[in-house]
Amino acid sequence: MSQTGSAGVVRVIGQEADRAARLLHRAREARLAGERTAVAPRAEIDASWNRVVRSGIDPGQSPESELLRAEEIEHRRHSTVLGEVMPVLRAGLATIADAAQQIMVVTDAEGRVLWRQGNSAVMHRAHDICLEEGAAWAEAATGTNAIGTALAARAPIQVHSAEHFIRALHHWTCAAAPVRDPRDGRLVGIVDISGPATTFHPATLALVDSVARLAEAEIRTRHLGAIERLRAVAAPILCRLEGRALAVDSHGWLAAVTGMPPVDRLPLPKSLRPGRVWLPSLGMCRVEPLPGGWLVQVADGAAEGAPRRVVLDLSRPRALSVHLVGPLGTSTQRLSPRHAELLYALAVHREGRTASELAQDIFGDGTRTVTVRAEVSRLRRHLAEVLAHRPYRFGDGVEVEVVHPEHPADLLPRSKAPVVTGARRGAAPC
Asked: Which of 203, 310, 393, 423 is the most exposed place for a label (fewest CB within 10 A)?
């Protein structure tokens, strides 16, 4: 796909929407033909077109997709927190969409339509483009569209007429915004308003984004209420216990604590069961279910289940992680790029590093010790049983393995840390 460095950017605004759509149509057709153009789409649309072309989507294809079965749709509805906030979405958007001759569409994090509601005539027209429950609207399935592009960009976006990659969607306009779970920041789905291109309005995106934020606020309010209910159950129990213990919800958020400093959130394994469990931030614990969460009692002094092996997985730049392997099984922690750099430096230098040496490894500046100490302190909240200090190092008797990417150049590709750039050149093997 060729691009022009001095191209004028076409934006769809108010009464100029029809003219802009015609310009975008010509720009799009020229782009597909590999020709230079005097105009270009917005940066967000341009990036989406590039992604879609690389994925092999045919601009002449139908937006049809294989629909999910009714039972699968129902399962997904009950498995997502979006189901709890549908009253907020309906109150904020569905009535307005109906009056504006549009429809509200809500999808899961894969871009599968779970709910839709709005103008009955538009609902009928949406059947022609497969904008119905169970359909796939990710970019990889349907090209550039508000739902799929909001998923890909993780940001609100409005897509109008010829900005859609598939020609069959050029008579439609849509605006969508992501909804995140405030408990962990995870994207849980997309809320969208779609309708015929003649219903375009530049304020629609702001409306959709505002309602998405209201939905997130409702999730947060419900979460705080659940924490209060858990605290009411757990507080009397904790008063009778000796030693360190805490009550957390199913996501690890703290409700009550005794015998230890409070933490905002306790990292929990993906599959947690009652009984003896090794938690990286606490060590050996006994876990019991509570209504809406877990009672966690720390087994002070018990070290027989401590991790004996650390696997630092750097093979996928977007899924950096560390696995702690011990007699009771394996636990996994996701890593930020900075924490991955620090653990890599410690894996390279098993003898240990002072704060100044780590600062040199990470920043190329041995004076940045305050930053290093703060970051290592955050790491040790989750990896205290395998990380020692004075100097900083992996603990004695802990086996360390680094899983490298297939190509050395892909090792933490955005990192500028000397310890990493040196490894890419083969200067610091591990």
From this structure: 203
Rounded percentage of the chain residues whose pLDDT exceeds 70: 90
Inter-CA distances, 390 with 149, 356, 369, 387, 394, Å? 48, 12, 13, 10, 11
Q: In sequence order, which residues have a C-beta less than 8 Å from that of residue 35 and are 6 or more positions away?
A: 2
C-alpha span between 31 and 40 (Å, rounded): 9
d(CA 307, CA 383): 10
In which element (H, E) is residue 348 found?
Answer: helix 337-348
- What ranges in 95-142 are assigned the alpha helix state H? 95-99, 120-126, 139-142
Q: How far is residue 79's CA from residue 102's CA, in Å, rounded to a whole number?
A: 27
DSSP 265: B
pLDDT for 6: 39
What six digits make up the tokens of 303? 């070290």
What CA–CA distance (Å, rounded) separates 290 from 102?
Answer: 45
Integer Cα distance of 126 and 161 in angstroms = 15
Q: Return left, alpha or beta for 415; rule: phi > 0 is left, psi -120 to 50 is alpha, else beta.
A: beta
How far is it, in rounded angstroms, from Cα 81 to Cα 246?
A: 25
In this predicted structure, the answer to whether residue 92 has a pLDDT above a threshold of 80 is yes
Mean pLDDT of the chain: 88
The pLDDT score that the predictor gives to residue 14 is 46
Q: For the full predicted model, state whether its pTM sits above 0.85.
A: no
As a whole number of angstroms, the distance between CA 234 and CA 223 comes to 16
Sheet (strand 172-181) strand order: 113-118, 103-108, 186-196, 172-181, 157-160
Band the pLDDT of 20: cuts 50, 70, 90. Answer: low
In tens, the pLDDT along 124-160 reads 999 999 999 999 999 999 999 999 999 999 999 999 9
Cα distance between residue 88 and residue 61, in whole Å = 35
Q: Cα separation of 201 and 383, whole Å?
A: 51
Tell which residue, 191, 218, 209, has the closest CA to residue 118: 191
- 249 CB contacts (<8 Å, ≥6 apart)? 223, 226, 227, 230, 255, 292, 293, 294
